[in-house]
Automatic annotation (TrEMBL):
One protein family per Pfam: HATPase_c
Keywords per UniProt: Kinase, Membrane, Transferase, Transmembrane, Transmembrane helix, Two-component regulatory system
Protein name in UniProt: Two-component system sensor histidine kinase DesK
Source species taxonomy: Bacteria, Bacillati, Actinomycetota, Actinomycetes, Propionibacteriales
Entry-linked SUPFAM superfamilies: ATPase domain of HSP90 chaperone/DNA topoisomerase II/histidine kinase (SSF55874)
Any one annotated GO CC term: membrane
Residues covered by the Histidine kinase/HSP90-like ATPase domain: 298-375
A GO molecular-function descriptor: protein dimerization activity
Source species, domain of life: Bacteria
Segments forming domain Signal transduction histidine kinase subgroup 3 dimerisation and phosphoacceptor: 195-259
Organism: Kribbella antiqua
Chain segments annotated as transmembrane: 48-72, 84-105, 112-136, 156-174
Length: 378
């Protein structure tokens, strides 16, 4: 985000938008009305070559002022901007035109310094712009006192100051708008990334559990084909049903409407554990769990049982429920050396727990094995 970039760069970034900004040069051109004063002075009070030079300088000055806005749009400032010396050279060219019209316009030529002040506030970084405005103010005040016949009424210096102040306010407004647009863009990108992470997490949890159970049942069916064909056929039918359910879950997750049922996950967990020849000790009711905690606890059951079936080597798995806590324990190998689990499933579970204001605990179960617990209310 460019919090202190020159206003010219901010305008260049905004100039690609369609709409009225395309005609910003026309809005700026309205202020050329005040150049009528030096024009009238040149036409009525000068003659010969001085008049020709004065009129040419005045027309070129007006063209350079209006052309500045077309410059912003078309020169390609958005891809790195113009160098400082180029911007100063542009302003120097405008000042040279003012000096060229002095013999014909006299004191009225100082009106053009107001336009240079406004252009400097737009084209330069603030510290350089203030320096240019200070030089213009000093030059006006000094010339008023040194040039014979020029009257010092303070109007030119005041006009330069007001022009700089007005453009400074516009400059800050455009910078805030540019920063706000950049912030909104960043927030939109973060929201998209967060949604991608959420969907990847849900897909991992959905397919990880389902495919684990399918794999276990398929292996069991393969071992039973010769010894017990009828049971093998039943296991194959279960595999088919699980595959269809997994497909439905994926479709529901894509649609964004999927919610887990704690009771349903306990039923699935019992079937998965039995298929893996692990004795399940599971609660038969979820009535004591508040409705707002059930979906989180359902994810705990899914992730915990998937890990038990995949990694534990356990013979027994126990799930304990209370109103604010759920525990999944087994009598298997226990945590890996070096600490708790850090797989994608547990990372996703921690993220869900954080969103719900809960705490995840992983470690060794009493008597050996692995323990996964989630407690609501930190």
């Amino acid at each position: 985000m460019k919090s202190k970039s020159a206003l010219l760069d901010g305008l260049a970034e905004r100039s690609d938008d369609a709409g009225p900004r395309r005609w910003g040069w026309l809005a700026a051109g309205v202020w050329l009305f005040y150049l009528a004063q030096p024009f009238e002075q040149i036409v009525n009070q000068s003659h010969g070559i001085a008049r020709v030079v004065g009129l040419a300088a005045l027309l070129l000055f007006a063209a350079s002022y209006v052309g500045f806005f077309g410059w912003v749009r078309h020169v390609g400032l958005g891809s790195g901007g113009l160098a400082l010396w180029q911007r100063l050279a542009y302003l120097g060219g405008m000042l040279a035109l003012v000096l060229a019209m002095l013999p014909a316009a006299g004191q009225q030529a100082l009106t053009c310094l107001v336009y240079i002040s406004a252009t400097a506030m737009m084209a330069l970084d603030l510290r350089f712009a203030l320096g240019v405005v200070a030089v213009l103010l000093g030059g006006v005040e000094l010339s008023m006192r040194l040039v014979p016949g020029w009257s010092d009424d303070g109007s030119y210096g005041f006009a330069i100051f007001l022009a700089a102040l007005a453009v400074f306010g516009m400059r800050r407004a455009i910078q805030r708008t540019t920063e706000l647009a950049a912030t909104r863009k960043d927030m939109a990108e973060l929201a998209v990334q967060e949604e991608r992470n959420r969907f990847a997490r849900d897909l991992h949890d959905i397919l990880g559990h389902s495919l684990t159970v399918i794999t276990v049942k398929a292996e069991l069916a393969g071992r039973l084909i010769a010894a017990n064909p009828e049971r093998a056929a039943a296991e194959v039918a279960d595999v088919e049903g699980l595959a269809r359910a997994a497909l439905a879950d994926v479709r529901a997750a894509v649609a964004g409407y999927r919610e887990l049922s704690l009771a349903g996950e306990l039923v699935s967990a019992r079937a998965a554990l039995k298929a893996a020849e692990i004795r399940p000790e599971l609660p038969t009711t979820v009535d004591e769990v508040p409705e707002e905690n059930r979906e989180l606890f359902a994810w705990v059951v899914r992730e915990g049982v998937t890990n038990v079936v995949r990694h534990s080597g356990a013979k027994r798995c126990t799930i304990r429920l209370s109103a604010t806590q759920i525990e999944v324990l087994d009598d298997g190998k226990g945590p890996t050396p070096g600490g708790g689990a850090s797989g994608h499933g547990l990372i996703g579970l921690r993220e869900r727990a954080d969103e719900a204001g809960a705490r995840v605990q992983v470690g060794k179960a009493p008597g050996g094995g692995f323990r996964l617990a989630v407690k609501v209310g930190l």
